[in-house]
């Protein structure tokens, strides 16, 4: 679809809007839908596009007001598309998502998993009573699911290790040295090899289309400038609030009030502390001011360094995302890329941070429970066996 | 994924042999209705799970044999070796020169710690042979002396060593008219300890299996070997390969994990029972035909009337009518001797397995109020038949089936304990009265939890 957007002129309006809705849907939906049967209806696609754009901060309210049946709005949709293109490396991101992977890959960070919205949580009516045994059942299922997942993961790794060590020396690329599972399958099963070839060929076609797009990109932007100019001037922008469901509004107000109270409390505490500190420090000489400034600066730098380290996933110098596994002989320096030991170290430190956070949250839960229990006299807590 | 079996005591070792034999024979059983490729996949899956490969091609059972005296272990080892089909590892067994007087406390407090390291090393070696470990089977009797005490200790050890691996204890529930006077003490101590350190307790009742041998298999002189073979058949019908999903043709990698996730996620409800249908002698098999409808109807009634075999089922017991409030439903069920289930796993094997109608098992009346059939009921279907049965069904259920027997044992043990009879045999070796009281408390809680379903 990509190169065709550039080629279409500003005519044939009625056919363009539905196509653009579909295009935006494919770009914005969490996983590119491979299977045509799984696509939602056009109205649903349009709704999803609107909400996704809104959550990303799309500034033009005219899009929200477009009808979802695809009868009009191609200009507004084009503007939305160009906005997405201008914001970030959209094309590269999409190509990376669907590229053919030949190696055995493993993620080194959780960013992709955390960023994707995941399946919608099942709506459970929490108004009625919930049997605690049902909750315990679900918790237990989660725990078993987790254990089974770990075991599967271990099996996967053990088998990968076997494939890698058995095929040592078979790869034409010396820096890799051994085959991946896909490559080994290629040799074992010719039909699989043909399928892989077809996938690689379609990937080539996609890459060529992307290159062609890059060649014509300038024309596209020049054209979009004219489109934008041709738009009627925006009326006073209504404040663009997300729609809150009715029940949620009450809870939201509660939360807002609690936040307000917390903020005031925090303010009061900070004021008293600051006043006390000033009182102690006030009498000191001008030299102190300089030291104070210096230490403030040092703290600020340390804070930003910590933040940067945390954002980069515990100090890993390499970019995020999946990495190809390459098994090298002990002692050899190997090529560029991460060492498994570094990744393990970074992941362990992340694990420690998360465990500390978990313990803190559990402590808070226990305190809250204790508070609730204290409010109800005559309660005896009986813990289940094994606790 | 592989399962490592720990065979404990006389009971565990004799049963363990029959289990491996049944699994092996079934996986090499000539199958008229399955393709060659399917058969090979089935064999490979079974083999990977329960056997490891040796150079000269004879599969070696993934098992560790433990007993405090050498007689039964030697018998088991030679039986396996003589069969020529498969064998046990040369260095997979641990035994002492002489037994030690059938004392639970001695097994738990003395044998356990004394031989902990040797047993642990044996298990470790077996685990290292696996590409990936799904979990452990621990086969042991519940009411025995040394074997049961040691078994409780070993299970606890496994919990510490392999906390992420799954553990299923295959427990042999003793005959109601047992001979050992302290068997009730042993039973409650074993059960309470296992409840804390195991993930699932799959209970095989000697009385029930004995009846199956007598009534269904028409065996006149029932030996332990006959009983153990029926038991092995039951286990095999559960753990032999099954397809991983409806419509898939790949065999499930981790049946133990999937079973546990479906049946025992709740820490208070860990007791499982198995029922099989059909069960009959080979001679009768040749003259019988079955329909899925008939098999499932009987199996369902076996479940709700707590029958252990397909003969002598009480067809009067019916599920209660819907719409009753849960409290009165509970007392009504009790009056009617209706066996309420928490969760059920149905495993169907054989011809036309996809045509079987399962609606009977999805009836909410069968289940407790806090778990809906969509969560409580699971089915695994495989076309490849099991053993010589053209169609067979196994039902693993977490239900109230053990409440009465358990209550009885706890009651008897408590009566003895109230007069402190024989308690000194235990305190002599470090099992204090406190431990008894803890066991009683835990098991009373289990009985109460199952009763208020």
From TrEMBL, chain A:
InterPro entries: TEDC1, TEDC1_dom. Residues 57-229 form the Tubulin epsilon and delta complex protein domain. It comes from the Eukaryota. Pfam families: TEDC1. PANTHER family: TUBULIN EPSILON AND DELTA COMPLEX PROTEIN 1. This is Tubulin epsilon and delta complex protein 1 isoform X1. It comes from Equus przewalskii.
From TrEMBL, chain B:
Its main location: other. It is found in: Cell projection, Cilium; Cytoplasm, Cytoskeleton, Microtubule organizing center, Centrosome, Centriole; Nucleus. CDD domains: delta_zeta_tubulin-like. The keyword Cytoplasm applies. Residues 47-247 form the Tubulin/FtsZ GTPase domain. It comes from the Eukaryota. Keywords: Cell projection, Cilium biogenesis/degradation, Cytoplasm, Cytoskeleton, GTP-binding, Microtubule, Nucleotide-binding, Nucleus. Acts as a positive regulator of hedgehog signaling and regulates ciliary function. PANTHER family: TUBULIN. Belongs to the tubulin family. This is Tubulin delta chain. It comes from Equus przewalskii (Przewalski's horse). The gene is TUBD1.
